[in-house]
Amino acid sequence: MTEKSLNDLEQYRTQRCRSIEDNYKEILDNIARATAKRNVENGDVKFMAVTKTVEPYFINHALSLGVDLIGENRVQEFLGKKPELNLDGVDAHLIGHLQTNKVKQIVGEVSTIQSVDSLKVAQEISKVSQSRGLTTNVLVEVNIGDELSKSGIEQNELTELCHEIAELPGVKVEGLMAIPPICETSAEVRGFFAEMYKLFIDISSKKIDNIYMQILSMGMTSDYEDAILEGANLVRVGSGLFGARIY
Ligand SMILES: *Cc1c(COP(=O)(O)O)cnc(C)c1O
User: Residues lining ligand 1, judged by CB closer than 6 Å?
Assistant: First the structure.
């Protein structure tokens, strides 16, 4: 590299790191404000930095600021970046759709798989976890907007799926995850989040053995405050922290 391009790279990194710092402070303020304002009870709100497409250099910068939970969508991308990440004391979750044939690669590499939406994938996670003497935490992903294009279990099949997964060894159901449809208004998206909170409370109240409804993962850059107001206790923010994604 020439001296000029090295300088450019240095400058780009410095600026982007500074904006990550500013964004992080602002997001934490927004989370605190929304948490104080909400009418539903659901404990503290956990912040997750969504790191898809982000280079390890910037992920590590976010970790140095105190971020202690990251989420990645793709198994391959996460495993590729993992050796370069400073993950001491940091928890990593898979948040993207998981194909059964990738389960072997991801079990043991993340603490939690947030995107479980079928018995088939849960059975495979159970089988692989058991064979390695591990327990994998999972969230059940709900297709709250009944969108054909989206993954996630249908609302009316959720309770049955929870019962079935609860029977599997090596898997611990810790909550629910959702990505609502793109909405025009805040009121509209809050309606979907409120439905999720209701499902979360319904399942908790059934007291199913081996189901620990603790995490309600919903809300991204455009709507995490709305999600918190309706009861989310884990928000997943990518572009709002790192800047627009470059694919
Ligand atoms: C990309 C992604 C996010 C973060 O999206 P932003 O809008 O960039 O905050 C959250 N959750 C899931 C499942 C994602 O794929």
Answer: 50, 52, 73, 95-96, 179, 220-222, 236-240
pLDDT tens by residue, 135-173: 999 999 999 999 988 999 999 999 999 999 999 999 999
What is the Å distance from ligand 1's center to 223 Cα? 11
User: Cα of 240 to ligand 1 centre, how many Å?
Assistant: 10
> CB burial class (10 A; 0-12, 13-18, 19+) of residue 149?
exposed
| β-pair partners for 112 | 93, 137
- Tell me how many degrees the CA angle 218-219-222 measures, rounded to the nearest 5: 160
* Spans of the chain below 70 pLDDT: none
What domains are there in the chain, each with its CATH number? 3-242 (3.20.20.10)
Unique residue bearing structure tokens 């969230």 = 139
pLDDT tens by residue, 84-103: 999 999 999 999 999 999 99
| CA 50 / ligand 1 centre spacing (Å) | 6
Number of neighbours of residue 92 by Cβ within 10 angstroms: 19
Distance CA 121, CA 156 (A): 19
Number of the ligand 1 atom closest to the C-alpha atom of 236 = 10
58 closest CA partner among 91, 7, 94, 18: 18
Structure tokens at 237: 């923010």
